[in-house]
Write a structure and sequence with these properties.
45% helix; Alkaline Phosphatase, subunit A; 18 strands; nine-stranded mixed sheet; 644 residues; 2 domains
Length: 644
């Protein structure tokens, strides 16, 4: 053991010894983080020997990959700074500062990974990248959700103590000078490692198991963050399996009963011809933040946290088999406005060249409606203002509220009751101007830090998700009640639908139950109470609303009017930013970015799934939808024009 220690000390005394020390620090803290996350996920982890050892072996590989990038500044410093500086006080100060920053960053990252894992049950991904962009909301959310000051003080104290004890390992490297030419050889060799890592390491190597928790634990949070940052858009043709475009178009036309409007057109253009007179009802769509179906008593919840929504579900038409396209608000907004399958990478809402697209708002506007999007936060978040204002909607956000009109606010926006007051004012304005209206309202209160005005419900603010759900339910109930006294109420269809579920974590890649969301069509005297139980995709919501209103129009939507669909047409789209799922006939096809396709039989209650053989027709149908959605966006074939 003494000999090993002596050899180790000799290595650290080398000019580039601190590189090894920094690598060991990163790998050690990453290992501790991985163990803690594994313990936290014990009930969901598939405890096989293969999974257990793979988590740590593959995890070490990605830890080393992350370290190869993290030490680049240190390698350059040790290479460039003159050898004669060694043993000088300046080097001691600079390297001590460097290691203090390294230790602080690594511990802070470990703490952050814990909170991120607690919220999403995954390593850093696109969500973490978005959080880096929207610092105001995210920092505010952290400050309002956690005791940030004690955490930071503890972090700095621990980092200071760790750096102090590391000094005996840092200082020996100062003692032996080395000439620049020799330093260059070592430096170039060390700098070659991240280059090889960048070009030859595949992020998918961590996908070693059917258990999603095992796959995520095998990764490294910092490496995953870098991957998500550099790959925020995934070109479908490059990464996913494709078929000829004419075949994809033929498959899409065969899926739908509506007549094609242009047999030469690429994609989904078709004529929607109503058989009855247009019904010029107003439409108010409430997009509810993170409302999983299993929060509602209508779906078996016994906590009584949605009494108003459950009451509306009994008085209106409850969609019992609806599934969200994705796991984030921006995906829900994409599905509800564009009615298009989720393309890989970032949502179209946040991409460039997304103006003048074929949206639900633009169709309503072509029918003489005033289309609005009303949001309780600042609309620059997730590019909402930019997207909706240039795609057929008039946008209103929290900037429209005066200070005396705000009862309560947190980092994400004003309380939902204030949002609905604002929406009521804008709707009244449209009615006064004798314009039929389509208004989409996006709530914010059902989001961490789960704070809201006191005294509204019987659950204190800032105590958890259930309270936030019940407060949002209260605000929706109050809005509907207040709307009942308005002259426009009797001619208005209220559509209450979730943007996505509260959690997307599951044991498998795409757990179907984590995409199950509620929707209610409510229009007293117009819609009979009941349940609609056919399988419904979130992208079907828009065409179904237009179908209920008996609108004739030339459609580019991938979604369909579920009131008119055949049994064979039932299908849903569910996704992460890279795994694309297509569920039909109780079989789930998953398209992956390594051009792989796999088919599973899912359990709708538990979310688990069992692998089964691919069926060519079903796989090609999945490919046709996702490939064509990406192709139309890329070719600007999903644009709206007066000729549509």
């Amino acid at each position: 053991m003494n000999k090993i220690q002596q050899n180790f000390r000799l290595i650290l005394q080398h000019r580039f010894g601190p590189v090894l020390l920094a690598t060991l620090l990163l790998c050690s803290i990453s290992l501790i983080t991985r163990i803690i996350l594994l313990i936290a996920s014990a009930s969901s982890f598939d405890w096989t020997l293969a999974n257990f050892f793979s988590v740590f072996i593959i995890g070490l590989f990605f830890d080393l990959a992350a370290a190869s990038f993290a030490v680049i500044p240190l390698v350059i410093y040790l290479w460039v700074f003159p050898s004669k500086w060694y043993g000088k006080k300046l080097n001691t100060i600079l390297l001590t500062i460097y290691f203090f920053i390294v230790v602080t960053t690594l511990i802070f990252n470990g703490i952050s990974e814990w909170f991120f894992w607690d919220e999403f049950s995954v390593r850093y991904n696109f969500i973490a990248v978005d959080y880096l962009i929207y610092t105001t909301e995210v920092i505010g959310n952290i400050r309002q959700s956690y005791p940030i000051t004690p955490i930071l003080i503890t972090l700095l104290l621990v980092s200071g103590l760790a750096t102090y004890f590391l000094r005996k390992w840092i200082n020996p490297s100062f003692s032996i000078p080395i000439k620049f030419l020799k330093r260059t050889k070592f430096a170039l060799l060390l700098l070659l490692i991240p280059v090889i890592t960048y070009f030859f390491v595949d992020h998918k190597w961590k996908e070693h198991s059917a258990n999603q928790y095992a796959n995520e634990l095998a990764g490294n949070g910092m490496y995953d963050f870098g991957f998500a940052f550099w790959n925020n858009q995934l070109d479908y043709d490059t990464f996913y399996q494709t078929i000829p475009l004419d075949k994809a178009t033929s498959i899409l036309r065969g899926e739908r009963s509506e007549k094609s409007a242009d047999t030469a057109a690429l994609g989904t253009v078709r004529e929607i011809i109503a058989t009855e007179k247009e019904n010029k009802m107003n439409v108010v769509m409430i997009s509810v933040e993170s409302l999983s179906a299993d929060f509602l008593g209508s779906f078996g919840n016994t906590q009584n946290i949605t009494p108003h929504l459950d009451s509306l579900a009994k008085k209106g038409l409850l969609f019992t088999n609806l599934y969200a396209s994705g796991t984030r608000t921006v995906r829900g907004l994409e599905a509800l406005s564009l009615c298009i399958p989720p393309t890989p990478g970032q949502s179209i809402v946040k991409r460039p060249d997304n103006k003048n697209l074929f949206t639900l708002g633009s169709v309503f506007r072509s029918k003489g409606y005033n289309s609005r999007f009303i949001y309780g936060g600042y609309g620059y978040f997730d590019n909402m203002n930019e997207f909706f204002s240039q795609n057929g909607y008039e946008v209103t956000d929290r900037n429209a509220l005066k200070p005396n009109e705000i009862t309560y606010e947190n980092t994400w926006g004003v309380a939902d009751e204030d949002l609905f007051k604002l929406a009521m004012k804008e709707i009244d304005k449209d009615y006064k101007n004798k314009k039929p209206f389509f208004t989409q309202i996006m709530t914010v209160s059902n989001h961490r830090p789960y704070t809201y005005p006191e005294g509204r419900i019987d659950i204190p603010s800032h105590t958890g998700r259930e309270g936030a759900v019940k407060y949002t339910d209260y605000a929706i109930g109050k809005f509907i009640k207040d709307a009942g006294s308005k002259p426009w109420f009797n001619n208005t269809l209220f559509v209450i639908v979730s943007d996505h579920c509260a959690s997307s974590a599951g044991k498998v890649e795409l757990p179907v139950n984590k995409y199950h969301i509620p929707m209610i069509f409510y229009a007293p005297g117009k819609i009979n109470p009941g349940k609609f139980e056919k399988l419904t995709a979130q992208i079907d919501v828009g065409p179904t609303i237009l179908g209920y209103l008996n609108f004739s129009y030339k459609s580019k939507f991938f979604g369909q009017d579920v009131f008119k669909m055949d049994e064979k047409d039932q299908r849903i789209f569910i996704s992460t930013y890279q795994s694309l799922g297509y569920l039909k006939n109780n079989k789930l096809v998953i398209l992956g970015p390594n051009k792989k396709t796999n088919t599973f039989i899912p359990d709708f209650k538990t979310g688990n799934s069992v692998a089964t053989e691919n069926e060519q027709w079903l796989t090609e149908e999945a490919i046709a939808n996702y490939q064509m959605a990406s192709e139309l966006y890329k070719r600007k074939g999903y644009q709206f024009s007066t000729k549509n």
